[in-house]
Design goal:
The complex is a heterodimer of chains A (289) and B (445).
Chain A lengths: L2 H29 L6 H9 L13 H10 L12 H12 L9 E5 L20 H6 L16 H5 L5 E3 L5 E3 L9 H5 L5 E5 L4 E3 L7 H7 L9 H5 L5 E3 L4 E3 L1 H7 L6 H5 L5 E3 L7 H10 L1
Antiparallel strand pairs in A: 1-4, 2-3, 5-8, 6-7
Chain B lengths: L26 E3 L5 E5 L9 E2 L6 E2 L4 E4 L8 E2 L4 E11 L3 E10 L18 H10 L12 H4 L10 E6 L8 H8 L1 H15 L3 E7 L3 H13 L5 E7 L8 H9 L14 E5 H12 L6 E7 L7 E6 L4 H7 L7 E6 L6 E3 L12 E6 L16 H5 L6 H9 L20 H5 L6 H18 L1
Parallel strand pairs in B: 1-14, 9-10, 9-12, 10-11, 13-17
Antiparallel strand pairs in B: 2-8, 3-5, 4-7, 5-6, 7-8, 13-14, 15-16, 15-17
Helix pairs in contact in B: 3-5, 4-7, 10-12
Classes of the chains: A alpha+beta (289), B alpha/beta (445).
Chain lengths: 289, 445
């Protein structure tokens, strides 16, 4: 056989095999065809396809299926998609979308390497979960952010990173408020808040004030000034830490001029985006020295 | 001519012993410390409830906490002084826990404990005495002793093994107890044998403690009672002192996974526990002090110390002249299974066997690398498990799926795998994480 005939035979055989399989596949596809609602695909196109699970369904596809087929599933459950997705899905499914309040994640700790003290050196597995298993981590404060980035690894939107200062930093533009990091964090220092929240407490410690003063310069010293000054009674003390009722706070509006944040001696009760600098505390410490 | 000593078949490692640092030092008594902190949970079971009110005076050996009818052990004050309060204190293993704070009045008025005859007492009375004394297994987990030796009806046991292996490097407290309290220990064993209604007792000792084996052999020869004692020298191999391994070595029986050791007819007790049982029954002295080894090159003076339970680490360090400048790590327990502590306020618990002050040369703090699939850990694991796969699953974020390697029941976190790992991987930590993730996944579903 010449080289040319080998090549020709080869081409012929594979063409025939290809045709046989092509026909077989086409026949099977028609025979076992599953009819899907085309609306599901339309709905799916509106979803962010991040499969974060914030809606309560295993992924975007299953939410699309559920919202189309089940009349009880609301069209505004996609948190990353927000208002745009909700108003896109609503007409397709014949449901009315309630208004979606955009939410973002915030970190209730500002114990960076400069502010928080360490009581040990940690050499083990570099995840927050692993460090928490050993005396709650190397930081003296057992409530603060450890900064090994368990949240970074689960974020589907690349919105949370551990910076040079050793704590998680949130990109509020990229963050969609899906809450995946909140459920991952072993220290429970991440919290979902409405995007337009006014104030925030950057400390989760339940320790006694004397201990907090010793181990962190941006810790809540439980003076409860904020509780006393709030005209809307939105700030309360649960016996361990400060709790803010953001609904009440936002409903009251800006008339109080954030008296709570102004009065805070350590600056950890602060306005949105204005993080504590430890300055107030440092001034006092300088005098004492 | 040359006979190899007995040991267990599967796995095991040979860490350097460092026992010569303290093995020849006789047991010293620590002066009465100022404060005593007794954790309400020093054992397996429910925490003890404090039974005194703040400012109540306490005497040496007075009961201060009780678990009642629940599984657990009673708590006794090692000093006389004042019951202050129940406080949240730093715990050497769990981080922090509730502890009873007793302020000592500084006097050393230990009551005279007189010898009581125990032969002829009914079994229930003996068990009650052991329960009243608050004795827990000193080998590690702290299982209440009276529950362990109170067999359920239908369970037949034929051998008692006294565990004197002390396979952890550095630790020599059991060695010293066997040497100095051999007679008491044997009488304690007789009490356990009487409760169990059997005759045979094997005292299993690693053969790096020749002097202890000899002195016990002498005591056994002198013994006139109708019990069969045997001092069994074993090969030096870690973890020889684990219950499964010591049962295999001494009797050749292997415990099936998931059942208690009494199912294969054996009860294992630590030698120091046996001595405390003697104290409880013969002297009616509650368990409030224990022998610990303080060793390592990071402390000025090393010692085998008799310390009151609840003594703060700080008091022990002060008594021994402080730490050296290059002390880098403090470990509660042995170097293989112990936990590092970061706070000198941590007190001694009922199960603390030793405190190690290690220098930079004695520890290895190099970062770990990726698994190179050498399989050393599979060879070293005494339970025939697969730490390698568990660690890789955890690293890739699928810890809950590591359940299929069936390590949860059998792994007792001896650390042999991490000891041999050439990549220095913290395999025990990976296993702990996997355990937590499996538990969490089980709770969710």
């Amino acid at each position: 056989m010449t080289l040319a005939s080998i090549a020709l035979w080869g081409i012929a055989i594979f063409t025939v095999i290809g045709l046989i399989f092509g026909v077989a596949l086409a026949a099977t596809a028609r025979r076992f065809h599953v009819a899907t609602d085309p609306v599901i695909d339309d709905v799916y196109a509106f979803l962010p396809a991040a499969n974060c699970g914030a809606c309560g369904f295993p992924g975007c596809r299953s939410y699309a299926e559920a919202v189309v087929s089940n009349p009880e599933v609301a069209p505004n459950l996609c948190i990353p998609g927000g208002q745009a997705t909700a108003s896109g899905i609503a007409p397709l499914t014949g449901k009315t979308a309630k208004e979606v309040t955009p939410i973002r994640v915030v970190l209730n700790c500002h114990g960076t390497n400069d502010f928080a003290k360490f009581e040990a050196e940690y050499n083990g597995v570099k995840t927050c979960e692993a460090a928490t298993l050993i005396f709650g981590g190397a930081k003296s404060c057992k409530f603060g952010c450890l900064g090994f980035g368990d949240c970074t690894r689960v974020c589907a939107f690349d919105a949370i990173k551990v910076g040079k200062n050793g704590i998680a930093e949130i990109d509020t533009v990229k963050c969609t408020g899906c809450g995946k990091c909140v459920s991952t964090c072993p220290k429970h220092v991440l919290q979902l808040l409405p995007l337009d929240h006014r104030v925030q407490v950057s400390c989760s410690s339940k320790d006694k004030p004397a201990k907090v003063r010793n181990i962190c310069s941006v810790g809540c010293i439980s003076c409860r000034k904020c509780v006393k000054v709030c005209p809307a009674q939105a700030v309360s003390w649960d016996g361990g830490r400060i709790v803010i009722d953001h609904e009440k706070c936002m409903a009251y509006g800006p008339d109080c001029k954030e008296a709570c944040a102004e009065g805070c001696p350590t600056g950890i009760f602060h306005k949105k985006g204005v993080f504590p600098t430890g300055a107030k505390k440092k001034e006092k410490a300088g005098v004492a020295e | 001519m040359f006979k190899t000593k007995k040991t267990f078949k599967q796995g095991g490692v040979h860490p350097s012993e460092h026992k010569d640092l303290t093995c020849s030092l006789p047991i010293e008594k620590l002066p009465v410390p100022k404060d005593i902190l007794l954790f309400t949970k020093q054992h397996v079971g429910s925490p003890a409830e404090p039974i005194l009110k703040p400012k109540d005076p306490v005497t040496v050996g007075q009961k201060v906490g009780s678990t009642g009818t629940k599984l657990g052990a009673e708590l006794h004050s090692p000093v006389s002084g004042t019951f202050k309060d129940v406080v949240n204190w730093v715990h050497p293993v769990t981080g922090d826990d509730m502890a009873i704070l007793i302020e000592s009045d500084g006097s050393n008025n230990t009551p005279e404990y007189k010898r009581n005859e125990w032969k002829g007492l009914p079994k229930e009375e003996l068990l009650r005495l052991i329960q009243e004394a608050g004795i827990v297994g000193l080998g590690g987990a702290g299982f209440p002793a009276h529950t362990k030796i109170n067999l359920k009806p239908g369970v037949k046991v034929d051998t008692l093994i006294l565990n004197g292996a002390e396979c952890e490097p550095y630790l020599t407290c059991d060695h010293r107890v066997m040497l100095e309290y051999g007679k008491e220990m044997i009488e304690g064993a007789k009490i356990i044998l009487t409760i169990l209604g059997i005759k045979k007792c094997i005292i299993a000792i690693e053969d790096n403690k020749q002097d202890a084996i000899e002195s016990l052999n002498k005591l056994i020869k002198e013994d006139k009672d109708d019990f069969i004692f045997e001092a069994l020298p074993m090969q030096v191999k870690y973890p020889q002192g684990s219950a499964d391994q010591i049962m295999e070595t001494a009797t050749g029986r292997i415990r099936p996974s998931g059942v208690r050791s009494s199912v294969i007819g054996i009860i294992v007790q630590n030698v120091a526990t046996t001595k405390t049982i003697y104290d409880a029954v013969v002297l009616r002295k509650p368990y409030y002090e224990k022998v610990i080894t303080v060793s390592g090159h990071g402390i000025k003076r090393r010692a085998n110390l008799l310390v009151p339970i609840g003594t703060k680490l700080k008091d022990i360090v002060d008594y021994l002249g402080g730490t050296t400048e290059d002390c880098a790590k403090i470990i509660f327990g042995g170097p293989m299974m112990g936990t590092a502590v970061s706070n000198l306020d941590a007190p001694i618990t009922k199960t603390t066997a030793g405190i190690l002050f290690l220098t930079k040369d004695e520890i290895d703090d190099k970062p770990y690398g990726p698994c190179i699939n050498c399989g050393f850990c599979l060879d070293a694991c005494p339970m025939g498990l697969d730490p390698r796969s568990v660690s890789i699953y955890v690293e890739s974020g699928h810890g809950a799926e590591a359940k299929k390697f069936n390590f949860e029941d059998d792994c007792f976190e001896c650390g042999s795998c991490a000891f041999v790992c050439p990549a220095k991987r913290p395999l025990v930590q990976f296993i702990k994480i996997a355990r937590q993730q499996i538990n969490r996944a089980a709770k969710k579903s």
